[in-house]
Design goal:
With 213 residues, the chain is of the alpha/beta class. Helix content is 50%, strand content 11%. This is Pleckstrin homology domain-containing family G member 4B.
Length: 213
């Protein structure tokens, strides 16, 4: 939910985490994750691109991270607007910078605040933005579950509509009777579909809970 001073969504990556030791934490997965994060904000915010803040204090980033940035620049140049690399002033390490896009090394919180206000940074970065990653993950999982249900129901309804629209007009009364029976059965299947029934019964309450969260 954080924004930089230009209104771009901020993705914060912390290098001090044992997750980087996981073999599944590779370039391919990082590209997928960054594309997913870019898809979350509203369209007008997506168009601005992500500002990626890499907190590399006391721990150097893995090479796979910069490789993921480079791949993303080739895949979608508008996905990442710029990368901010926050490091200790006396920390030196070799890195492969992305070939395109803005890339800046920051050595102090003062230099970071030129790009992102402290009210938009979490406590770990001396900010005041309230954030709990566990709560965010729980919220996203609930939202994704609802989205998948809606998408599945939408595809089912589109298939039913296509069946009706693609049907030929009957030439004889017998054919008309068969067609009516088929359409009645189709409507029965639609009205009794478990996905639609569940969305009708639980969708409103789930949306209300998500809004509250």
């Amino acid at each position: 939910g954080t924004r930089d001073k230009s209104g771009r969504a901020v993705a914060i990556i912390t290098t001090r985490n044992t997750a980087w030791l996981n073999p599944h934490c590779n370039t391919t997965e990082l590209v997928r994750l960054l594309l997913y994060l870019h898809s979350i904000p509203r369209p007008e915010c997506q168009a601005l691109g992500l500002t990626v803040l890499v907190d590399a204090r006391r721990c150097s980033p893995v090479p796979a991270l910069f490789k993921a940035f480079s791949i993303l620049q080739d895949m979608d140049p508008h996905c990442i607007h710029g990368v901010l690399l926050l490091v200790e002033r006396d920390l030196t390490f070799r890195m492969e910078k992305p070939p395109a896009g803005q890339f800046e090394v920051l050595t102090s919180m003062k230099s970071l605040h030129k790009h992102i206000d402290s009210s938009q940074l979490p406590l770990e970065l001396d900010g005041t933005f309230p954030y709990c990653h566990r709560d965010w993950l729980s919220f996203r999982m609930k939202l994704e579950h609802l989205l998948q249900g809606c998408q599945g129901a939408c595809a089912f309804l589109q298939g039913a509509i296509h069946k009706v629209e693609s049907g030929k007009l009957p030439e004889r009364a017998e054919e008309a009777a068969v067609l009516l029976r088929n359409y009645r059965q189709l409507m029965k299947n639609v009205l009794e579909d478990a996905r639609l029934v569940r969305l009708q019964l639980e969708g409103g309450a789930l949306l209300a809970r998500l809004r509250k969260e």
